[in-house]
Amino acid sequence: MQRTQIADVQPGSRVRISGFVENFRNKRTMAFIVIRDITGKIQVTLVKEEHPDLAAVADGITLDSVVTVEGTAVANDYVKLGGIEILPESIRIESVADALPIKPDSAIDSRLDFRWIDLRTEKNALIFKLQTEMAAAFREYLLERNFLEFHSPKIIGAASESGADVFRLSYFDGDAYLAQSPQFYKQMAMAAGFERVFECAPVFRAEKSYTRKHATEFTGFDLEFSYIDSYYDVMKFEEEMLTYMLGRVEKKFGDDIVRLYGEEYRVVVPTAPFPVMTVADIYSEIEKRYGYTVPDSEKGDLTTDAEHYTFDLARELFGSEFMFVIGYDGAKRPFYHMRDENGVPQGFDLIWRGTEITSGSQREHRYEQLCKNAKEKGLGEDVKFYTEFFRYGCPPHGGFGLGLDRLTMLFLGISIKEAQFVFRGPDRLNP
Ligand code: AMO
Fold this sequence. Notes:
Blueprint: E1 14-26, E2 30-37, E3 40-47, H1 52-58, E4 66-75, E5 84-95, H2 108-113, H3 115-118, H4 122-143, E6 148-149, E7 155-156, E8 168-171, E9 174-178, H5 183-191, E10 196-204, E11 217-226, H6 231-261, E12 276-278, H7 279-290, H8 304-318, E13 322-326, E14 347-352, E15 355-362, H9 367-376, H10 384-387, E16 397-403, H11 404-412, H12 416-419
Parallel strand pairs: 3-5, 6-10, 12-13
Antiparallel strand pairs: 1-2, 1-4, 2-3, 4-5, 7-9, 8-9, 10-11, 11-16, 13-14, 14-15, 15-16
Helix pairs in contact: 4-6, 7-8
Bound molecules: aspartyl-adenosine-5'-monophosphate (AMO).
Aspartyl-adenosine-5'-monophosphate is lined by residues 161, 181, 183, 205, 207, 214-215, 218, 220, 222, 356-361, 399-401, 403, 405-406, 416.
């Protein structure tokens, strides 16, 4: 008999189901086994007198063992779990589980040590159903708009974002780096005339940060497109894309998110355009409204606390969970961002629920100017291979990077340690 997934079991049919033992009550005359697979849970009700052979098998069951049961599904109003139960004809134990080393409420680091067990709950499985939906929505949205999906190298010869946070590795007789972003290659694709490209891929950052939002490896949704007039085109593209992506998540998992994570995390599908404010205006508003201030020397960029206040500000001023932030100090932004005549970077960050999820910009595609910007940041020879992309003709272009792990954590109000399938941080390389 073919296996049926639990959500597809219909009363009145003979079925074979397999899964983990979620709950097990072994009484004198009866045994109740609740079995869980990725689609749901179902009760198996064993009347021992009728099946002494199965009663003996049942005695060997422990919680989280994996079993296969064949039997008849019947409707029974007394069964709390969906009003349906399976009357077994056979029970096979596929794998006996030892006593579990963690519980759902164990400390996060213990749970991460046994991540595969931690992931068995419906609540945690939802994290990855949601990521699947976001990746599908991202990809479909871009494919419909004629983007090419490309795959850039992750072993590279020069640091792409900043020399400080790069992992160096030995590469035969020399050194190489792990890619901090596909930035250089997204732009190379523009110089190749591809016009529109995207990638969903790992990104590596040697940041020794112990926060809710930093990982040393994460998944980047990156895109780049040509023939833009300004970075406003890039922001417009992103707000429309995110509106579509959040709409998809809301439709498919909106109820599950509220049921498992709480009303606070109900998905609010945004409407474009998203609000836009300069860094300077944000500081002056949050000082006025919430009394938060930082020294002038820090006002070229948003501090983590200022990002959090930006959520309150976005809601109060615009009734939005999102805020585009522009007008950063050139010293705080990468050399590849185009600058206007006053030296202001033509780029933005996007803050959602008080945390940065994206950086983007129009890029400097003029060779001479790009070399000048690189030199100002002390990057000459290192990035020569990259500046060469702009010597032989390159369209004006821009793009952005969106962190999937950040998006996931903000959807559900969890930390990045939980939003990643397997977290990578300064102190964690296992499992
Ligand atoms: P940036 O460095 O801002 O920009 O990264 C883009 C997005 O990636 C996510 N992110 C992180 N997520 C988890 N852990 C980290 N340590 C981490 N660092 C960054 C964030 C962030 O907004 N090349 C540019 C993008 C571009 O301009 O196209 C870049 O990498 O969500």
